[in-house]
Fold these 2 entries.
Entry 1:
Amino acid sequence: MTTVLLVRHGLTDANTGGTLAGWTPGVHLAEKGRQQVSALAERLGAVPVAGVVSSPLERCQETAAALVVSRDLAITTDERLGECHYGDWQGQPLKVLAKDPLWKVVQAHPSAATFPGGEALRDTQARAVAAVREHNERFGAAATWIAVSHGDVIKAVLADALGLHLDEFQRIVVDPASVSVVSYTTLRPFVLRMNDTGGGVSGLIPPKRRRRGKASSEAVVGGGAGAESS
């Protein structure tokens, strides 16, 4: 049984600014994001880890670096764990993208969505799942390892592990600096945790209701083309 800890990078200014960062260079962890991953590293300190594999994007590399501070491990970079290639959508405000007809496809039928000048979400899932399974083989059946990636990518891997069609992956939430845990066996994957942030209950308190008519971009593609913004 190989166990992977799927870690989403910490909070960035793109997340809070409502921008779809994608593969935009120079998107770093915000101060709160650095605090989040530092706390996460402390939480995971007692977990024996065989390796850490990360998306090449800065926000993930910075998250991975925090996780290996007290470990004698090098970070392996795998582009297959990188964010979806959003093409012409990259760098755009979410409130603008929400008006595009493709937005509804991404929400309701993501397996049919291909971003203009970019990648199909089904291809994002295929490469990410292949990466996880190949690293499982590399680390071995008794290993636990960490994969640092992005919201939509982790959601796609979790959907596969749960036996869900990609069209259902929008039902999954993956917050910044969260941990989701999957154990892979010869029988099937077993999802042990999802979106574990380990904090208090503040995230369960409903937000104040917005005035009617005010545009909202919260019902979106979870960790990528959505309010959480890759």
Entry 2:
Amino acid sequence: MNAFRSVILIGVLFALAAQAALAQEREPRPPAISVTATGSVDYVPDIARMQIGIRAEAKSAAAASNSVNQTAAQVVAAIERQGINQRNIQTSGYNLEYREPQSPQPQPAVMSTAATSGGGSYVASEILQVTTPVGSAGAVLDAAINAGANTSYGLTYQSSNADALYRTALARAVASARATAQAIASAAHLTIVSVISIGNAQESSGPAPMAMRMMASGPAPVLPGTDTVTATIYAVYAVR
């Protein structure tokens, strides 16, 4: 009999727990306002980062590699003479590949010749990433070209004060989110009580990369213009 009563009691407890959970699910959620807001800061970049390349082609792998290595050493030395520390010069890529010989163009039967194509060749390339102050970028670029650099993968900008700029943009985004939520609440005759949740996702935008000039007759015109740091936040406010 005691065991039977225990089973009944357990069943009753489970039923009460299920009813309580169901009641909680049916309770209306407290009103809330969700907003997304963006803040931004304009600034003048003070750091330039360029990708400078050296490319050479030869009949043997050793000859192609030696040519690139010698030219790269000259380019690095020329950059260092512009006052750029070696820690700001990084080899970001090195490649050696074999290039098949090109097949001769087919000729009409009456004009056929016995000419044959030569053997293939090896192409070696190295990419140097150089970080410089914007004011020195033009002179560094020309020095690298004059020392033998013959390819480029563009020029980008950044700020030495990036963290502080982003925090400022983030603060503006938070203020904008609050103002937007307040406007919505006022229009709906509600009052903001507290912040339920808030999160952010970093964004940024900048000028398009600048291609390297292959012929240099004077300092390259490196103009950073104005860049923008942007921060976006997502916030949920409790209202009543």
